[in-house]
Amino acid sequence: MLLVGVGVVSALAAGAAVALALNISERKQEGRNPFFRVVELTDDTVDPEVWGKNFPLQYDGYKRTVDQVRTRYGGSEAVPRTPTQADPRSVTAQSRLEEDPRLKSMWAGYAFSKDFREERGHAHMLSDQTFTERQQVTQQPGTCLNCHASMYTTYKKLGEGDIIKGFEKVNAMPYFEARKRVEHPVACIDCHDSQTLQLRVTRPAFMEGMARLKKAQGVANYDVNTQATRQEMRSYVCGQCHDEYYFQGKEKRLTYPWDKGLKIENILAYYEENGHKDWTHAETGAPVLKAQHPEFELWNQGIHARSGVACADCHMPYQRVGAQKISDHHVRSPLLNIQRACQTCHHFPEEELRARVETIQERTFNLRNQAMDALVGLIDDVKAARTAGRTDAELAPVHALQRRAQFMLDFIEAENSMGFHAPQEAARILAESANLSRQGQILLRDPKFQPRIPGQSPPSAGDAHPVPAQPKAP
Ligand code: HEC
Ligand code: HEC
Ligand code: HEC
Ligand code: HEC
Ligand code: HEC
């Protein structure tokens, strides 16, 4: 019995040794051949599945962006629905309007008061845009597609090789005409050069926005694709879409309001100067603005940007697969992946890191609720004043306070990290928003009251600081 036992054990050990040796040599092989060129990719290969033949690991992660998992303040919930002819989706994300009906008051008269949902993974971007009820309230322009589809080859084709020309053509089309010319959500070719795989920016609005921002900082003719560092590109590819925007002029040109800088005061000063309004508030008559997902702008004001930590460091962290180190293309909430997203730099237990994030988010959420109550209070008071006969001309100074308070609140409300990307900046903005709404209420009651508007003289544009080469762990 003993002899047989020893024999079995040593046979197993020998087998294990052989298996290990094989495994090591396989891994060395993988390390040497980062990929097998199975297919030839060109500057016109838009289908991510074709790219996936050469890069199966990245493609696998990319496909997983269909997943819906909730975190306390992020991720999303899969809400089943009955598909209809008009909207064939069988699953959507939870409605934010149902979660907080005060949003309908803030956006009264605007398409957002009709349908606004929690955002979900990249795989859904094109269908969620196509089928949102916001498409039924007004005719949307082709510009919308810039951030919801793989656009690079469409721009190139329509512009006969010139993506700026193609971009202008798409912007000027009605949405559903432009929609026929795209097929995929954001794809490999939108972030990568097909030959070198290097990161690149393909969105004209981002190139132009950055050039205007740099000009304000004294850098002429900035070209993001030749002048940005690799670490900067690891955020800029995301900044192509995750930022505040508006449609300029009749041609509906997608424009990022960064001429004076990226801080909220810079952006507000820009809109004051050009007199832009997104719509007229249905209940108060105020000319108001809608802020949209300013992740890039808010991140820029935080300690991580200051320390050179990029979007991709947290949202596409490195992952070891065999001997390869790849970037996780399953772009999602880092709280679903704390070990790889945070613990490479922060040597604290997972629960401690989660608690730090959730503490920041809970504080932001509480302030957001107070600022929202204040704004709805102001809106109700203006409504009552109009019913009592006060004219919009008389109410103009109060409208100005509503416009500013509302944009500041919406800037943090629309930003998707619930304050995490720049906690103190988020808290400051919400506190000032609440103060502005309450001052509006006082002004309605006492015409002699002199409102004090903080930060109206914009700080210098020098707030998009250069990024240090490599971040160090604290
Ligand atoms: C230091 C890490 C870090 C960096 C850098 C970072 N983020 Fe985040 N981001 C987070 C965390 C943490 C959350 C909160 C996630 C949650 O609540 O589930 C978040 C939330 C988000 C969300 C909402 C995700 C969701 O699940 O709802 C988006 C979108 C986002 N970030 C985009 C960006 C972009 C774009 C950049 C760069 C401009 C960036 N982030 C930089 C950590 C980071
Ligand atoms: C500058 C880029 C950009 C443009 C232009 C853009 N979007 Fe988006 N959109 C985003 C980003 C980023 C998200 C995810 C973050 C969020 O929802 O806040 C998003 C989310 C959405 C969602 C899902 C969440 C929701 O709001 O219900 C819909 C629907 C949507 N957009 C529709 C549109 C429509 C319609 C237009 C044109 C009027 C448009 N988008 C233009 C970047 C953009
Ligand atoms: C072409 C525009 C575009 C680019 C480029 C882009 N995003 Fe997005 N992102 C979107 C849109 C649109 C959505 C919302 C899709 C929806 O709700 O259907 C989204 C959603 C997200 C979410 C929410 C995912 C979830 O599960 O809730 C995160 C996180 C995110 N993006 C981070 C990033 C990061 C990080 C980068 C850069 C590596 C990036 N995005 C690049 C347009 C873009
Ligand atoms: C939203 C932008 C974005 C999209 C879309 C995207 N990638 Fe990437 N990809 C990145 C970033 C960021 C990196 C990290 C690059 C770096 O650090 O230089 C990366 C890195 C890579 C690398 C280098 C090895 C690694 O994993 O770090 C390969 C290969 C790659 N991506 C393939 C793909 C393929 C294939 C697709 C489509 C299925 C794709 N990518 C879609 C942003 C993107
Ligand atoms: C690439 C490295 C890196 C990654 C990845 C990273 N951090 Fe950080 N983090 C830093 C640095 C550097 C600082 C600034 C520390 C300092 O200067 O004292 C910081 C600061 C912080 C702070 C303090 C914030 C403040 O405003 O004072 C928190 C909280 C934090 N990180 C949480 C996280 C979480 C959660 C993640 C993952 C989602 C994460 N970090 C990912 C490097 C990183």
UniProtKB/TrEMBL annotation:
Location in the cell: Cell envelope
Biased segments, Polar residues type: 82-95
Disordered: annotated span: 74-95, 444-474
Main location: other
EC top class named in words: oxidoreductase
Domain Cytochrome c, residue spans: 161-275
Reaction catalysis annotation: 6 Fe(III)-[cytochrome c] + NH4(+) + 2 H2O = 6 Fe(II)-[cytochrome c] + nitrite + 8 H(+)
Annotated EC: 1.7.2.2
Keywords: Calcium, Heme, Iron, Metal-binding, Oxidoreductase, Signal
Keyword Heme on entry: yes
Cross-referenced PROSITE patterns: CYTC (PS51007)
Entry similarity comment: Belongs to the cytochrome c-552 family.
Entry protein name: nitrite reductase (cytochrome; ammonia-forming)
Organism of origin: Hyalangium rubrum
